[in-house]
TrEMBL record:
Keywords: Cell outer membrane, Membrane, Transmembrane, Transmembrane beta strand, Transport
Name the record gives this protein: SusC/RagA family TonB-linked outer membrane protein
Subcellular location: Cell outer membrane
InterPro entries: Beta-barrel_TonB_sf (IPR036942), Plug_dom (IPR012910), Plug_dom_sf (IPR037066), TonB-dep_OMP_SusC/RagA (IPR023996), TonB-dep_OMP_SusC/RagA_CS (IPR023997), TonB-dep_rcpt-like (IPR039426)
Entry keyword Transport: yes
Family to which the UniProt record says this protein belongs: Belongs to the TonB-dependent receptor family.
Main location: membrane
């Protein structure tokens, strides 16, 4: 931990201790009365009293989700719950974050959390307007997730949208305008002078014209901008004694910090609840989102690598074609993305439609039938136009490419719920049948030789690109049962079973039986417990088995590819060896926790310890090519994942005019591969590997040993046959080995909420300590002369390059067209991933009722907010907060730790107004 992180954490503890002492010594009576109505929490498929909850659950109210202005709900969750690691996939408009709950418990299977919206399991992150959300629950252990079966094996993000009320109708309007500034972190590129000095210092470098030392075109500055966001929401909540209605509409528009990309979304939702008869209530819901994107944005990659000596425009303003005759252009790839963007562009459209028809039938006072029925439809299409006049269109006389996705999911759940008191005894139970399926189809096509300006295939096209696509079907079928027994509100016992069938496996392995059981004890209700300062103290423990399915839908089948042509005929080639015995990953989850409320409910403390073991890991294994097919999915290996989670909140001040709360959560976990197939090395993506005894996210590469002070050559480690270690300056002779891991030691957040009369201040700081990050950009931009005609990064103050014998340097000698491979993957580019990020600061004012009543309003408020304000880190790249890119998430890649071509998360400043009638 760096000093600044340490001071921050120490300061948080200092505030906590001071507040606790204040609570014991203050003479002022608490003005807030204890809530006598027991809270009801919906966990999974059932509603429970909070006092009897035995599951590991974090509850996030809508008030805690207002410290960010974003189009995607996943980005709102960072720092809100212990055990939930939220990794941003980038800062581009419409980007989503990855939510991982309790670390990585698998290797090939999906490791992201399951999203459940209003009881319906979703595919991926829902395209949902955050303003429609009432609350979110993070479900973390087997007790809370087992009823969801294999899809909930990696934890669940349970979302509840807003509902109407039976009282007077309320119309609310929210308006927000934001400005995004491009935030490149500590990654700085050289200007013309710096690059000239670097280039001429390279050994064997050719001469350059001296005037280049003053020429400097800033590609990054000229390709980026201050982006703008407009976010408007109007919603209505109202109803009658027999009905409740919620209607919401939202318009979100964002222009990126990289020029010429616009993201627009229109969202609409209606949630209605109608009591048709005293025994029958119907609950239809409809959600509609229409998203469009217009893409003429420049290449961020080219902004980084293009030389400052190359100006994209002539003196008269016309754009330069670097490939034209008699053009002087220094960049290696002869690229000027602005030239093509005179004509080339892309468009995308996405329609998300969710429809529910739910109902509740009251059979008796203690028995209900609940039916949930949903269809989710997603239609996505995009096109990209390449003009015949552009460089990209020269070879094929222009082109038009389109892709189309149809994604349809159905979900049906028919459930009986029983809840009855027998004196001091309470029994509640449920039994249900559930079915869900998914149909997905992707089609791609294109034409060449088009008429300039067309967006239609058959207007002048002379040839066509080879069409491509994919299609999949997947279905689940399950019976589930849960029961809970409560004695005198002191002792709790709960158990659940789920029998699930999945089409991802062969007929003999299709069925899986998953279970959980838990115990709870409210200690403060015992007669012997006489500690007045403690209001509630509960102990709980759970154990369960959940399953996980493979990322492919047909891992158990022989697959053939119809892509090869022989003698003019299409032939089938063996693409995958089937495995009829392929079966579920089995994740055994154990959790022990305690929940404490003390000092008149000022202090809340939740502590959990979990220890999970995953058996029969699903892996794609490479086979010898002599078999005729080179891959097969097998169940191989085990992984253990364990850790601690702490969540603490404290009300330092409670009074009529001043309220001050602080919150702190921290999570720590580690995972280990216990075994692999024949204890062999399983190579993964991003230079990562699975080896028995090491972290799942371990980096596997050559170990950098610094610079030889005698000759300036780079050095790597060699592990000899006898176990001894030596140095080599030959990259290919160095030993591949484990050199670190991406898993952080711990992560968490600190938050504070201060209210003084009508003013309020909210702040959130997020931190992550430990773990490593591979800065792959340095392979190009810190290349020791391997890429002399790419721009290079400015070295950090603590770095220096070898120049003469005896120099103790961090960087080897620079050589023109360097072929010593010092810029190839090694631990040289592994950096400390620790950081502290000032995530958000919000200052607002609630107008007094005396004023709002005069203008016929129920309430009104105004606020200003800053997000991603600054980051404290040693990382030399753009941002150490790295998650899978959008492309990786589409391909099912669960790993992080590679800082490549990520769109920087912008710094955002917002002004917002809320009012209601």
């Amino acid at each position: 931990m760096n000093k600044k992180t340490s001071r921050l954490t120490t300061g948080g503890y200092f505030f906590l201790i001071c507040g606790a002492l204040s609570a014991q010594t203050t003479q002022k009576k608490d003005t807030l009365q204890e809530n006598k109505i027991e809270d009801i929490v919906i966990v999974g498929y059932k509603a429970q009293k909070r006092s009897s909850l035995t599951a590991a659950v974090s509850i996030i109210s809508d008030k805690k989700l207002k410290d960010a202005n974003t189009s995607n709900v996943s980005s709102l969750l960072q720092g809100k719950a212990a055990g939930a690691q939220v990794m941003q996939g980038g800062g581009g408009p419409g980007s989503t974050a990855t939510v991982k709950i309790r670390g990585t418990s698998t290797i090939n299977g999906p490791s992201q959390a399951l999203w459940v919206v209003d009881g319906v399991m979703m595919t991926g992150t829902p395209n949902l307007d955050p303003n429609q959300i009432e609350s979110i629950n993070i479900l973390k252990d087997a007790t809370s997730t087992a009823l969801y079966g294999s899809r909930g094996a990696n934890g669940i993000v349970q979302v509840f949208t807003k509902s109407g009320n039976s009282g007077k109708g309320t119309l609310s309007i929210s308006m927000n305008s934001s400005f995004n500034t491009f935030n490149n972190g500590r990654f700085k590129l050289m200007d013309g002078t710096q690059l000239y000095d670097y280039f001429t210092s390279l050994k064997n470098a050719p001469a350059l014209p001296e005037q280049l030392r003053n020429d400097s075109y800033n590609w990054l500055k000229n390709g980026t901008q201050t982006g703008a966001v407009q976010n408007y929401t109007i919603d209505f909540r109202g109803g009658s004694p027999t009905s409740k209605t919620y209607i919401s509409g939202n318009y979100y528009n964002e222009s990126g910090t990289v020029k010429s990309y616009d993201f627009n979304r229109l969202s609409f939702r209606i949630n209605h609840e109608q009591k048709v008869q005293p025994w029958l209530t119907i609950k239809p819901k409809v959600s509609l989102s229409y998203t469009t994107g217009k893409d003429r944005q420049g290449s961020l990659y080219q902004m980084y690598l293009n030389m400052p000596w190359d100006n994209p425009r002539y003196s008269n303003g016309d754009l330069v074609n670097p490939n034209a005759p008699n053009i002087t252009w220094y960049g290696r790839d002869y690229t000027n993305y602005l030239y093509d963007l005179q004509w080339n562009y892309g468009k995308s459209n996405q329609l998300d439609l969710l429809g529910n028809f739910d109902a509740e039938i009251k059979l008796t006072d203690y028995l209900k039938f609940v039916t949930t029925n949903n269809v989710t439809y997603k239609n996505y299409d995009d096109m990209y136009y390449t003009d015949p006049r552009s460089i990209a269109g020269e070879s094929n006389k222009g082109g038009l490419a389109e892709s189309y996705i149809k994604d349809i999911s159905k979900f049906f759940n028919q459930m009986l719920r029983f809840d009855k008191d027998f004196g001091v005894h309470n029994v509640n139970a449920l039994a249900a049948y559930e079915y869900t399926d998914r149909f997905y189809k992707l089609s791609k096509a294109g034409v060449y030789g088009i008429v300039p300006g067309t967006e239609i295939f058959d207007t002048g096209a002379t040839t066509g690109a080879k069409p491509s696509g994919t299609k999949l079907d997947r279905a689940y079928n399950a019976f589930l049962f849960n029961t809970e027994y409560v004695y005198d509100k002191k002792y709790f016992v709960q158990g659940s079973l789920r029998s699930e069938s999945s089409s991802s496996f062969g007929a003999s392995q299709r069925n899986g039986l998953f279970y959980s059981y838990s115990l709870g004890w409210n200690i403060q209700k015992e007669n012997f417990f006489q500690v007045k300062q403690i209001d509630e103290w509960k102990l709980r423990a759970s154990r369960g088995l959940v399953g996980n399915t493979p990322s492919p839908n047909y891992g158990w089948q022989d697959l053939y590819a119809l892509t090869q042509v022989y003698d003019g005929q299409i032939g089938a080639t063996w693409n995958q060896l089937g495995n009829r015995n392929l079966t579920w990953e089995s994740i055994y989850q154990n959790n022990i926790g305690t929940d404490i409320k003390a000092f008149n409910n000022r202090l809340t403390l939740n502590v959990d310890y979990f220890n999970n073991k995953t058996k029969d890991l699903l892996m794609l294994v490479t086979l010898p090519s002599l078999t005729g097919v080179d891959r097969q999915y097998l169940n191989v290996g085990d992984v253990r994942n364990k850790g601690w989670e702490f969540n603490l909140s404290y009300s330092i001040i409670r009074s009529q005019n001043v309220n001050w709360d602080i919150g702190f959560n921290i999570s720590t976990y580690n995972n280990r591969v216990l075994s692999t197939r024949n204890n062999s090395t399983q190579l993964l993506s991003n230079n990562q590997v699975a080896i028995s005894g090491y972290d799942v996210t371990s980096f596997y590469m050559r170990k950098w040993m610094g610079v030889n002070p005698d000759n300036g050559a780079g050095q790597w480690e060699v592990i000899n046959a006898d176990g001894s270690r030596s140095l080599t300056s030959n990259y290919n002779q160095a030993t591949l080995q484990i050199v670190g891991a991406a898993t952080p030691d711990y992560y968490g957040s600190f938050s504070t909420n201060l209210t003084i009369r009508n003013f309020y201040l909210n702040a959130n700081i997020y931190f992550s300590q430990g773990g490593q990050i591979y800065n792959s950009y340095r392979e190009l931009f810190d290349s020791d002369g391997a890429y002399p005609y790419y721009n290079q990064m400015v070295l950090k103050d603590s770095w220096n390059r070898w120049e003469k014998p005896g120099d103790i340097a961090t960087h080897p000698i620079g050589i023109f067209n360097n072929n010593t491979l010092t810029n190839k993957p090694s631990s040289r580019y592994l950096e400390d991933a620790s950081y502290v990020k000032f995530r958000s600061l919000r200052l607002g004012y609630n107008f007094p009722k005396s004023l709002t009543e005069k203008i016929k309003m129920t309430s009104a408020s105004i606020y200003i907010m800053g997000e991603n304000l600054f980051t404290i880190t040693k990382f030399s790249g753009i941002d150490p907060e790295v998650g899978p890119s959008d492309a990786d998430k589409v391909n099912g890649n669960p790993y992080s730790g590679n800082a490549g071509a990520i769109y920087p998360i912008p710094r955002r400043f917002s002004l917002g107004i809320n009012f209601s009638f």
